[in-house]
Amino acid sequence: MILAIVQARVSSSRLPEKVLRPLMGRAMILYELERLSRSRSIDQIVLATSEDERDDPLAETVRDAGFAVFRGSLGDVLGRYEACAKAFGAAHVVRITGDCPLIDPAIVDAVIDRHLSEGNDYTSNTLGEATYPDGLDTEVMRFAALERAHREARLPSEREHVTQYIVKHPELFKHGGLRYAGESLGHLRWTVDEPEDFRFVESVYERLYPERKDFAMRDILGLLEKQPDLTHLNEGFTRNEGMKKSLEEDKLWKGEVSSCRKSEKEV
Questions:
Q1: Is 206 exposed, middle or buried (0-12, 13-18, 19+ CB in 10 A)?
Q2: Is the distance from CB of 4 to CB of 42 less than 8 angstroms?
Q3: What does the DSSP 8-state code read for residue 180?
Q4: What is the distance between the alpha carbons of residues 36 and 215, in angstroms, rounded to a whole number?
């Protein structure tokens, strides 16, 4: 069974409650789930949020829309994923973050197809150089790989950013990647982490969604070709800023562990 797990919470530091922010009259997260539901390869979609009471409105909104919800650890996102995948009996897990309301199900399917045809443990369209727009990120992994990562990962970044342990250990896991066939689009920012990002996404939806609810990446690219000024709405932000913060936390964690071990030797 191929399970798509969409991770989301309302306590975002840069744009709190972004997943519930109204987009054309509905919570932003519902558009993302709607788009994923058009995948031909995914058997089940579940929103994985935390047990924190602040995420109660998110869980309720998603359940009311007819989608499954799983609740787990707030800080240990890797643990949340493993528990969710186990609860739903997944053989393969598709990881999508809840800040990607422009996710393209055709690209998701292409990554899944590559993953299955090559017999990979882990496959993504971000491995190495990201050639798709930021916000179309798709990762697929075997449950066995996720389970091993959960068992062995120790660093804060590995617990927060679910696939980091798998990505960092190609000697343990068979990797595969999907690159965009044309000139790289990795410089385009279609994710939602900042208010400016939301304005960009809102502008895209207002122009495309009314006439074609299943608009795809090519439709967005066509829109940007006609209205290039839209790309200026959220330019200037760096991709994967959250990861950089987590890597700094790793340094602090390693320092604390080293100090503890030194103290133990001195006792």
A1: exposed
A2: yes
A3: -
A4: 12
Alpha-carbon torsion 21, 27, 30, 31, what sign? negative
CATH of the domain at 212: 3.90.550.10
> How many other C-beta atoms lie within 10 A of the C-beta of residue 113?
15
Q: Are strands 92-97 and 68-72 parallel, antiparallel or unpaired?
A: unpaired
Task: Report the relative pairing of strands 44-50 and 26-27 from DSSP bridges.
Answer: unpaired
Residues 218-254: tens digit of each pLDDT: 999 999 999 999 999 999 887 665 545 555 556 654 5
Domain membership of residue 242 as a residue range: 2-266
Count other C-beta atoms under 10 Å from residue 181's C-beta. 6
The tally of domains found in the chain comes to: 1
Closest CA to 62 of 142, 110, 7: 7
What is the Cβ-side half-sphere exposure of residue 15, based on CA atoms within 13 angstroms? 18
Residue 222 CA to its chain's centroid (Å)? 25
- Average pLDDT (158-169) is 97
DSSP 90-102: -SEEEEEETT-TT
3-state secondary structure of 177: strand
